[in-house]
Amino acid sequence: MKLFGDLWASFILALSNLGSQCRFLMLLVWRTPRALLRFQLISDQVYNSGALSLVIIMLSGLFVGMVLALQGFTLLQRFGSESALGTAAALGLVKELGPVITALLFAGRAGTALASEIGLMRATDQLSAMEMMAVDPIRRVVVPRFIGGIIAMPLLSVVFCMIGIFGAQLVGVQIMGVDQGSFWSQMRAAVELKDITEGIVKSMAFGVACSLIAVYAGYHAVPTAEGVGRATTRTVVTSAVVTLFLDYLLTSVFL
User: Fold this and answer.
1) What mean pLDDT comes out for the span 120-149?
2) Calpha distance 130→73 (Å, rounded)
3) What whole-number distance in Å separates Cα of residue 99 and Cα of residue 244?
């Protein structure tokens, strides 16, 4: 009985946290129009979340594309379809690997930075000081970081896919000997607008989810060093699970 009681308590706690995050999301959306007037704050957060993540995104995209080309070439060679390597690499990156891996890397790099930064502001009473001075900390601190993450995620996903396709071309054409004309022509013929739209929609959904989880965890962190550390860890774990769950749901919708 104790096991079922613990499971039920965990389920109720999860529902409570989900409802709290939904309320927090509605609060962010409500404060967004006025926060958009401070363009400099949002551009700074796009730089912090996006530009500072470019190195890891580009390196990961390059190696993922190269590995995808190696595995894809080995598989397609069994059916005599090596020329379709470009199509397989592009569709795999644009529809699935690009948005998903970008979201996971975003959660590990930018998401933890957002959560720890806001959590430290909570622990050092900076947010309370803003409230004492009649400054809304959500509109001044949380909303710009939330919007910056949403804007940065699709841009990072595009960069990941471009570098990944270049890595696939580098291995497939230069090393494995696939015809360059067939690689690019079949890719252009097979990749349609709906495939690109699916990747963009997924990256935007992942951006909303990962940014919301990060700012929520930081804003509601326990104001201690241990509390900030737990909020940072919770950000990575929750973002990864939610990203994979949303990926399944969105893939089912598009299919």
Assistant:
1) 85
2) 57
3) 10
Confidence band, pLDDT 50/70/90 cuts, at residue 200: very high
Question: Is the Cα torsion angle 44, 221, 136, 24 positive or negative in sign?
Answer: positive
Where on the phi/psi map is residue 177: left (φ > 0), alpha (ψ -120 to 50), or beta?
Answer: left
pTM of the model: 0.88
Neighbours of 87 (CB within 10 A): 21
CA distances from 238 to 27, 110, 156, 243 (A): 21, 14, 20, 8
Cβ contact 237:210 at 8 Å: no
For the record, the structure tokens of 232 come out as 């940072």
CA distances to 163, 186, 194, 225 from 62, rounded to whole Å, are: 5, 21, 24, 36
CB 210 within 8 A of CB 243: yes
Yes or no: say if 87 and 69 are a contact pair by the CB < 8 Å rule.
no
| Helix-then-strand count for the chain, H and E | 12, 0
Residue with tokens 């530009």: 51
